[in-house]
Write the structure tokens for this entry.
Amino acid sequence: MNKDLAELSLEIGQKLKASGHVFSTAESCTGGNIAAAATCVPGSSEYFKGGIVAYSNEVKMHLLHVNPRTLALHGAVSEETIREMAKGAMESLETDYSVATSGIAGPGGGTKDKPVGTIWIAAASKEKMLTFRQNGDEGREKNVERATRNALRLLNRLLEEEMNDSQ
């Protein structure tokens, strides 16, 4: 495990443990890498409930409750879809927070509007949602690694914002 990811996962875990909250993941292009980063921390079962790797639209619809209309209008790689994936993960896995990713890791599959390296990321709580569009193709492995790191950073930022809002 990358040292940066392990430290970020530890920091997130400490915040979640201190607040008594739990989180889940809904991953498409990252294929479970965010969940793997979360569980590299000893004791992560106290704050990480699980994840759904939703590579197909059928899984996005049936397990994460993504509206078929959203997929038809915006596609799987869109802000609208990852918002619904994040909400669906919290609902299905009964968590306080979630992280969702969907994108085109490459090397193929890109289009003019959504080139390879386009990855949408969401971090959500019941009250708030942050989204981020990752751009740029550095090859499949780097694209996935960057998305995993960006997803954890986004969750960490959401946790910090909510901690500051409650003070």
Notes: The mean pLDDT is 96. The chain is about 50% helix and 20% strand. The first helix runs from residue 3 to 19. The beta strands are 23-27, 48-53, 97-103, 119-125, 129-134.
